[in-house]
Amino acid sequence: MKKFLGIVTGLVLAASAATADPIKGTWKTEVDDGSYAHIGLKSCGDKICGTIDKTFNSSGEYKSPNLGKVLVINMEPKGGGKYEGKVWRPSNNKIYMGKMTLSGNKLKLQGCVAGGLLCSSQNWTRVN
pTM above 0.85? Predict the structure, then answer.
């Protein structure tokens, strides 16, 4: 019985590891309008969403009115470290077509208009 339970536990752990998305975790944004944030990327159904977990300016951590708001919206994994969904830019309160590309501990986030012809991007770094 112990051997059977050990096999079942091993299979469950292997399945969990196989479905874990490498993009999940905390990411530091670039400075935008004088401040930056830590974004927590996590599952939202079968997609990835990201909330503003901490905000910082030149004085250090501060309580932005955007804390807890969703910045990365319904990013769908497309394979090869690429994701597509939407992103919200707090400085102008607009939602854009979004793309993310993961490369190790770097994440390129793009917000695009005109069907993806015009994009602005940021490079984020993994915090944990």
Answer: no
Q: Which tokens is 117 given?
A: 């012809």
Q: How many CA atoms lie within 13 A of 83 on its CB side?
A: 31
Task: State which amino acid sits at residue 114.
Answer: A
Positions of E strands within 9-64? 25-28, 36-44, 47-57, 60-62
The DSSP code sequence of 54-72 is EEEETTEEE--TTTT-EEE
Residues 101, 91, 33, 26: is their CA dihedral positive or negative? negative
CA 56, chain centre distance (Å): 18
Tens digit of each residue's pLDDT (9 = 90 or more) over 44-58: 999 999 999 999 999
Residue numbers of the chain with a pLDDT score lower than 70: 1-19
> Residue 6 class from Cβ within 10 Å (0-12 exposed, 13-18 middle, 19+ buried)?
exposed
Structure tokens at 119: 């994009």
CA distance 54 to 37: 6
With a CB cutoff of 8 Å and minimum separation 6, the contacts of 38 are: 26, 27, 28, 29, 52, 53, 54, 55, 56, 127
